[in-house]
Design goal:
This protein is 85% helix and 0% strand. By secondary structure, it is mostly helical. It is a single-pass type IV membrane protein.
């Protein structure tokens, strides 16, 4: 290929002198195929990036996006000289004028490739803008969540230069402020807790004093309770004995009544029998 791209001495187009050769057409075909392969790879990268942007969160794909952008940039740099050569070759064939059919084919192919290149570059540019906006919004939300402040231009500069030292400084200040607030809150909580402990301690002291003052009464009440318990036990014992005695006395009384009745019956019988005999005689 390099042997064809030698510039003619004194000419503006290095391909003018080769325009009538078959080798020229072969070289145009090879460059076209090479450019088509580059365009396919660029379209594939753009498609992958569109899927990432469509997911709504590119934070998990930052490294992947970085690789895609680097590869796309390399392909674009590689495509630029090829497009320039194809344009010059197309103009050389047009200037030669003896091959209008070949010129029309080359022109149509060249126009398709430039159209595809412009299309993929436009899509890539829109994706870059969307990704930049998503990154910017996420950084702004992170700033808001952490109580930090920065203008949109400052955030863009940080993202472009990858210099977040100001953010780190602001974050350190915010963290120190937050730590100080926590210390103050903890100190207030400790003071409140200490006050509650003092109040509780005073209550305990008052209870102890009351208990000491009323200890004799408490002991006396306790003695009376024990004595009352003994009296109850003793009374229960005596009651049981009285019940048993009452039952025994009742039995004795019945036995005596029966005995008296029997004796009276015997006496009556003893008197009645002789009297009846006398009456009969």
């Amino acid at each position: 290929m390099s042997r064809i791209i030698e510039k003619k001495e004194g000419g503006d187009n290095p391909f003018q002198q080769q325009a009538q050769t078959e080798e020229y057409l072969d070289d145009f075909t090879k460059k076209s195929l090479e450019m088509a392969d580059i365009l396919n790879k660029m379209d594939s990268i753009v498609t992958d990036m569109q899927k990432i942007v469509a997911s709504g969160d590119i934070s998990d794909h930052n490294q992947e996006c970085k690789i895609h952008i680097e590869n796309y940039t390399k392909l674009l740099l590689k495509a630029k000289p090829i497009i320039e050569d194809l344009e010059k070759m197309n103009q050389a064939l047009k200037g030669e004028g003896s091959r209008p059919l070949e010129y029309q084919k080359q022109l149509h192919l060249f126009q398709n490739m430039t159209r595809r290149l412009n299309n993929t570059m436009s899509r890539f540019s829109l994706l870059r803008e969307s990704m930049s906006k998503m990154n910017l919004d996420k950084v702004k939300r992170t700033f808001e969540i952490n109580g930090l402040y920065a203008t949109e231009n400052e955030i863009e500069d940080m993202i472009e230069t990858n210099d977040f030292s100001r953010v780190e400084t602001m974050a350190e200040i915010s963290q120190k402020r937050e730590n100080l607030q926590k210390l103050v809150q903890n100190e207030q909580s400790y003071l409140k807790l200490e006050t509650q402990f003092k109040e509780l301690f005073e209550i305990f002291n008052q209870l102890a004093f009351i208990i000491r003052e009323n200890q004799e009464d408490i002991d006396r009440i306790e003695t009376n309770v024990y004595q009352a318990h003994d009296y109850v036990v003793s009374a229960n014992t005596k009651l049981e004995k009285a019940v048993q005695y009452k039952k025994s006395a009742s039995k004795k009384k019945i036995y005596i009544i029966i005995a008296v009745v029997v004796i009276l019956a015997i006496i009556i019988a003893a008197i009645a029998i002789p009297l009846s005999r006398k009456s009969g005689s």
